[in-house]
Design a protein that fits this description.
Elements: E1 6-10, H1 14-26, E2 30-34, H2 37-43, E3 50-54, H3 62-72, E4 77-82, H4 87-95, E5 100-103, H5 108-119
Helix pairs in contact: 1-5
């Protein structure tokens, strides 16, 4: 893990991405933002310690990105978030290595606490 942990936020809703990013920066993290699967793949790489990943994106699914991220860096921590997760999706996400599936809406401070616990 880098000296300052880096969190990739993959979320197409600007307000959620911005609010979470601001709180993570205030908590001492470096934040990289992506609004869709294409930009998330471009941003992802060495130095990303955790990913907060939306299930529904305009150009791909969070499950597909989770699969891609864990293949590339198996030790990365991924929190999947969704207002639409079914029990089957949750099981698949956990099978693929997600640390948790968090329902939307969520409290931003709760998500920051989850990231902090993963990176402790």
């Amino acid at each position: 893990m880098s000296a300052i942990p880096t969190v990739l936020i993959v979320e197409d809703e600007l307000l959620i991405r911005w609010a979470l990013g601001e709180r993570l920066v205030a908590a001492g993290y470096r934040v990289v933002e992506a609004e869709d699967g294409r930009s998330a793949r471009e941003a992802y790489g060495a130095g990303i310690d955790a990913v907060v990943l939306d299930l529904r994106l305009p150009d791909t699914s969070g499950i597909e990105l989770l699969r891609h991220f864990k293949r590339a860096i198996p030790t990365v921590h991924v929190l999947l978030m969704s207002a639409y997760a079914t029990p089957e999706v949750e099981l698949e996400a956990m099978r693929l290595g997600a640390a948790a599936v968090v329902g939307k809406p969520f409290e931003v401070d709760e998500m920051v606490a989850r990231v902090t616990a993963l990176l402790a």
